[in-house]
Design brief:
The complex is a heterodimer of chains A (326) and B (253). Chain A is of the alpha/beta class. Chain A contains 9 helices and 17 strands. Helix content of chain A is 29%, strand content 26%. The chains are: A alpha/beta (326), B alpha/beta (253).
Amino acid sequence: MSDISIIGAGVAGLCVANELLSRGASIRLYDHQPLPGPHACSWWAGGMLAPFCERESAEEEVVRFGSEAIDWWDQHTGVVQRNGSLVLSTTRDRNELVRFAKRTSDYELLDAQQVSALEPDLSGHIRQALHFSGEAHLDPRTALLKLAENLNAAGIVIEQGEPSSNSKIIDCRGLAATDTLSGLRGVKGEMLVLRCPELTITRPVRFIHPRMPLYIVPRGEGVYMLGATMLETSEGNRLTVRSVLELLSAAYALHPAFAEAEIIETGVDVRPAFADNLPRIRQHNGRIYVNGLYRHGYLLSPALARMTADLVLNNHIPEAFYEDFL
Amino acid sequence: MKTFYGVELDSALMLGTALYPSPAIMAQAFDASKASVATVSLRRENSGGQAFREWLQTLNVRLLPNTAGCYSVKEAVTTAHMARELFDTTWIKLEVIGQSDTLQPDPFGLVDAARILCEEGFDVFPYTTEDLVLAERLVEVGCRVLMPWGAPIGSGLGLNNPYGLRSLRHYFPDIPLVVDAGIGLPSHAAQAMELGYDAILLNTAVAKAGDPVAMARAFALAVEAGQTAYQASPMEPRDMASPSTPVIGKAWL
């Protein structure tokens, strides 16, 4: 019998499972679906590993604990692209770039020439950019499936049904955990996937606009993920015309070639978040909850997985995000 | 202090609830700002934002729902109806936007929507320009508060037309006036209060500051400073120097 059961095979559950597996623990993983897929909000993520950029609106802990994400993902999945990321604005909104720079660190200010050296397709209309060379990105779906494969290779499949109550339970169910986890709320996000073969962008680009901050993450072979709205609601099944219009007009403003792109997918789901938009490792009712990753699922899950494993295996209290409701 | 539709407010600051890094920081900013009113947008969280609405209720301030993002009379009126139901209040900050780049009010739509809502028993807080004639029309249709802009929403440019704002104050001594939009710095807020305005409404200047909580405190101080200065009847500026210490009788060496 396995002594640790993980419920929820989204990004949090899969990271915790992989971390425990790599430390030799005996685990079982439960979800209502047998494979990672669209039922998890992490399926719809951008997959940016961008701790420095996130500092623009996130607390310092996000940078500190997000910094270990790139190596973790590389080690466990091998699908990380270490190309850095770019932050741009239109010439009219130059002050937005100044504001972004004031709030962040670890970037280099590029002029038009340096931008076109990095991303030739953006040459011409982009006069200035911030380059965060220490950042990376990955394709979330490939990464999640890789994590499931790692488990498979060790004989662990994602089981349906209920875990044994004798085992130590780590609850990573995301927003579904609102039934027993207090303080969790939903923040809706909407995204699009476009195919635009005539355009080559090789690193995530954040296009700051005072009304609609947009990011574009290249998935390779001319496919781009466009994200993402942030709406204070847990109603997650409705993609609105307004959001699509905003996402697409921002993409078009970034590069007119997007006008001819094919819309190959639209997505909408709800991120689990606590009031301070920081995650928690919470002990409550005999369970360990790992939840509230907000828009930082890929960035913070590795650190949370490490701290959760230390807690479960060595009784080592996490250095951050920890709450004891015992 | 003047009353806003019969309600006396504890402080002259009204704060928006958008764009904060997190609801927790928003709550701390409200605390530091001592704001008495929170404006809240309906357009994008109507049916699902239960958790966020519950958060707003814990701020212990009066809620002023708005019709932000509405471009037509019909949209604005429908949104006002929704707001009344969701927040159980007759207060509505009426925005009818006429131009998407500057987000400036559509004066014609604004008067039409204000007339409808006032007739239906709403307490309308119209977001308007500093135009005197438009202000008169709004009062004619029943508005008992006016909210002229300082500058376009989110621009942080301050008071673009102090002359216009001052005339508005002189023409409507009994109507509560609120500078709404365009405030970027505490000094802008103080300036508006020094003109005799009754309150300031702002959002971005606090929410998008590097430290929203500290900036909220700065605005609380500025609003209080400006209000106290107005009540203290400031000196009139004059062209000639007038030494504060008499020079007659000074020993000359």
